[in-house]
Predict the structure.
Amino acid sequence: MPSKKPNVAVIYFPGNNCEEESLKAVLASGMDGKIVRWNERKGIEKYDGFIIPGGWGYEDRIRAGVIMAKDPVFGMIRKEAENSKPVLGICNGAQALVECGMIPGLKSNVEMALAPNKNPFIDGYYTTWVNVKNEQDKNSNAFTKFTGKNEVIPMPIAHGEGRFVTKDKELLSKLIKNKQIVFRYSAKDGDIEEGFPTNPNGAMHNIAAICSKKGNVMAIMPHPERASFIRQLPDITDLKNKFAGNIMAMEEPAPAMNVFRSMKKYIEEEIL
Amino acid sequence: MQVNVSMQNLPPYMIACSETQERFTWICPPEFTKALLKIYNEDFELPQISIGAGAFVIGKVTKSQDYILRHNGKIVCNAPIKAVTQGIKYERAKKAPKRNFKEPNLKEPNDYSKALLEILKHPNVASKAKAYKHYDTSVMGNAIIESGYADAGLIKAADNSAFGVALKTDCNPRYCRIDPYWGAVNAVAESMRNVAAVGAIPSALTDCLNYGNPEKPEAFYDFYEGVRGIADAARNLHYKGTKYPVPVISGNVSFYNESASGNSIDPSPIIGCIGVLKDYSRAITMKIKKENSALFLIGERKDELGGSVYYDVNNEIGAVVPITDFEKERNMVYAVIDAINAGLLLSCHDISDGGLAAAISEMILGGDADGEIGAEINLDFTNLRSDKALFSETSGFVFEVEGKNLEKLRTLFKFYKINLIELGKTAGKNLAITKNNKKIINLPISKLKETWTTGFVEALE
């Protein structure tokens, strides 16, 4: 058991607004962490893992995530990922990972996009709680080591461009074959209903999160850092109603915390 | 010393007075200036992020009594500071407008189920999910109760602390059209009821006062009465445990809101109330939690339908708005807060738009309209005609209590001298309302859901 604690950088770009709560989830999972400004650059290689948080990096100029993806620090993070370090892109971070091609990462160019939501209820930016199902075995990537195959987890979404799409007709079957589709939008009982409201944004194949072929990089559109503690879960979830009136239980981890705990285990096993 | 601008040749008055958003000014001791500029201009590289962005020294505080603005070397403003800081006082004439509101003589509905559905369909009652799901309700990860689930939102206040902060805003412009004083009192009372309904103590108020043209004596009268109403309510709905007013700590005013033909908007003093919960885990939402719980009402129903949704659905406005009984209102709010914090209530909802019937329907549905437990209600507790009993918007609360907590509940409400009215119980898959042994409403939850979830959406189309 390594004596050093995993140390994760939460990279803050101008316009991100989810870095604080992302760091909280990192620390609560047992890792060390720090919010690192995009332009600090020195010492990026010292960190054991990286989180690109949500928000409006560079005001979503041109497209969400594209300017972030072209920032020099992103090149450094890409190099660390090639050395197997874990990189978790949440929402805006996911968009940046797709814009730079690190996700799906099969070719050297951009192969997918996170397109504007297709939603019959609300046009544009949409927030709601969803359920996502883990499609993979526990050890197939760095982020589901504590999440069982077919386990369903509640998380909130808050985005206007969350629809995974691609022009490449063969890409989807490649992703499935490579075990790169980690989370898919599902009903609470795990049923993958392809329409709204189970699929909140029209993403192909109900994809909510994709990882790289090696499994150490993941782009996830829902926000695990907003569903990591019992107190964050909405009224509709039975877990929370059970603990009403119990402050200690309210602060306990909720299922999405396992994404961060998995990152910690991966770093301990592969990096340290 | 230059104010940074986004385009050249802006006239000096524009640089000085334009209300461009998202700018900050600092006044700092001179020894901090260099450090401050470094943070913005180097650490956060503002000039590299956006054209013209950055922190610039634009002036200094002096010992003289003048407010001086220079542009291109010329002095363009030189005023004594008192002129800038003391504000402008003027006397406005006020005159009570002639109001000719009358109570209508509505026939009793033949079909109460239909009447309730019309209420639930009204955009002021129907689910507002189409609006609030367009905004981020969980950023920062501290939301305990998000939009729609309860009468107020609730966030966790700070790390390593059990405190919760509740927030709600409220106003009913129709009440204010009838009576600008009581309408404003109601706005304060209702926003306080809303934070109390999640278990929080109303602790501070803020206001957003929207009125017509104050240069017209009738419009100014409405503003004057509105402010008087807010102040009276804040003074009389004491901060819990004290005889102190709940302070109005901030606010803004918007005047000159008129149509092109010069008609004033309805007076709209929007009140925001902040509530504090010592233990956020005690907070409850409005959704019914269990079968066979008891449902109670506090706040006797009165014939106060002026400005109500029921009258609006019948194309009337009425004349008698809900009048706040300050002592009773205080005690209702304190009792509900104590009951919630003692864990005695499973769910709670205050009564406002749509009255008692709308409140019960919303408790059955819950914020996401996914509720599955109905209610059996008996209206024999009141002598009011059933439509007035169901749809009057007199202040009150409805709450759900498990059998094991009934004795403690009665003791608590006796202490506060608040009458507990038994409404019925949670049961089944319908909303069933009975009066004098006759079932006057019997609606399946699915029908309530269909109407309540589409009313606001359809009104927008």
The longest strand of chain A covers residues 126-134. Residues 41 and 93 of chain A are 17 Å apart (CA to CA).
